Amino acid sequence: MLDFVYEETFANFLELVTNNHGLCMAKKLLAQTKRPEKKARFMALISAQALEIMQNQFGNYAITEILSNWREEECQEVYDAVCAKLCQLSMQKYSSNVVEKCL
Length: 103
Hints:
Elements: H1 2-11, H2 13-17, H3 20-32, H4 36-48, H5 50-54, H6 59-69, H7 76-84, H8 86-90, H9 95-102
């Protein structure tokens, strides 16, 4: 059953994390994910759309959830994306939350 939840989350990740109600479920799943292969799939989805997610009013919370609960080396791709656009992201209301968490 849980694998089904993961597969549906992977398939609809952007829609979930950019929606108020979907974000609640996604944050819980992100915080509780322990298996490296699941974390790698989440990170691949985030990396592909990092800027869009960071700048979204709900999506930024999904990324800060990962930064709070995963090891630093597991979040390296997020750090790299933030560093690449640090000035831009730090001046925007939602993405500045991610910048602050990275610091």
